[in-house]
Predict the 3D structure of the following.
Amino acid sequence: MINRLSGNPYILYKYFTIDLLKFFLFAFISLVTLIFFIDLVELLRRSSNKVFVDHLQKATFVDIIGMASFKIPSNMEKVLPFAALIGSIACFNQWRKKSYYIISRSFGISLWKIISPTLVTFFLIGITSIIFINPISSIFNKKYNSLQLIFFGKKDLKMLSFDTKGFWIKENSENKQLIINANKINEEKNILINVSIFVFDKNKKFKEKITAKEAKFSKNVISLYNGKLTSRENQLKKFTNYSFPVKSNSNDLKIAINKPDTIFITDLPSYIFKMKKYGLNTSYHLIHFFKLICQPILIISMILLSASFMLRSSERKVEFGIVSLSLVVGFCLYFIGDFIFALGSSEKLPPLIAGFGPTLIGLFSGCYLISDIDEPKKI
């Protein structure tokens, strides 16, 4: 039997992988269900608090259930690393109690060989999440935002500030170069609000500055209303209507307001490129894209970290301290990643570091700890 296992341990690998998948699926379904009911209760509370709000449509119980259901794909994406962490901790604890790891080591099978098939399986689960769950999540997030605006009027999603510096567009107008700045945008009416336009000649010398309360894009034309024109000689002129021929049209304004979680991952690179072309801050969208790419690596990092803590001790009794430490380390990795994500979004860190940094730290730490367990100890 020993020779059979040591020569062809594929049955053992298959058993370990299926065993870990069972714990993972139980944790995954439990977390998704729990979050669904939390969202449902929160939406019911919000719908019951709409006192003296007549301009909003009343949400029925079916509408509330529908809204909570639209968040399920997004929640599935978010809980995958947590489910992997909790499921692997529970599974490895059972392995330790039943001495699976000790028996496998006695056959000459290292910990890396034991968990490698499971790591490949969970990496494929992460890839599946990106390919299949992300598109559904993007569509449902759009529908959820629309219903949220109808039933709760949380905020006007059609008008928002982009950042403290506003919204910037670079344009060419015949022999002139324009730098257009606006504080807000109303996509529904294709209007820029509180607009400043800096005009340069073909030699890139400043020519004039134009400020207006509103500007509207139409086909290859931007029209400004109720503004002032200040020339390089500080001559001031007021106007009610002023137009520039430009290359952009009204459809280009949509680029400025789409949130990254409402965009398919396959569309994000081209979307980010268009944002960069128009001088918009792409940090938030870039980091979101990097985090999506890192999802499979984050999942296997959680498994590596839990294995390195749970299988370090060979005692059969449940050690509450080890379980707690594994959970704390896993959750800290996730929440520190969110903190670094916030720093990257505010341009305090480069997007590449903010997007990949926390996940790679978790991966390298898990690999080091697993290798430390596998390394023979000198007596």
In short: Residues 111-151 form the longest helix (41 residues). Strands lie at 159-161, 167-173, 176-186, 191-200, 206-218, 221-231, 236-245. Residues 1-6, 155-164 have pLDDT under 50 and may be disordered. DSSP finds ten helices and seven strands in the chain.
